[in-house]
Design a protein that fits this description.
mainly alpha; two-stranded parallel sheet; 48% helix
């Protein structure tokens, strides 16, 4: 578990993981929060949060774990399902 809502939170999570398990053989990124709301009803802070948790955090984790993933010939799984009913 980690706080992926900020760069600092992502870095702290990666640091803790690498301390306890320096050989990362896999990374699974699950979908973060999402909004079921019209774009015009969504503020810029909410959009920034969605990008941080759903795009930037997974990309940064991949970068931070890349040396170990490459050395271990690891795998990355990206899950991206958000909601099961139509809008």
């Amino acid at each position: 578990r980690g706080d992926f809502s900020s760069q600092k939170g992502v870095e702290q999570f990666a640091e803790e993981v690498l301390k306890s398990a320096p050989e990362i053989g896999g990374l699974v990124n699950g979908v973060g929060p999402y909004l079921r709301r019209a774009l015009l009803e969504t503020g810029p802070e909410e959009v920034a949060h969605l990008f941080q948790t759903n795009l930037y955090a997974p990309m940064e984790l991949l970068r931070l774990f890349s040396d170990s993933l490459i050395a271990q010939k690891g795998r990355v799984v990206q899950l991206g399902l958000a909601g099961l009913s139509p809008f």
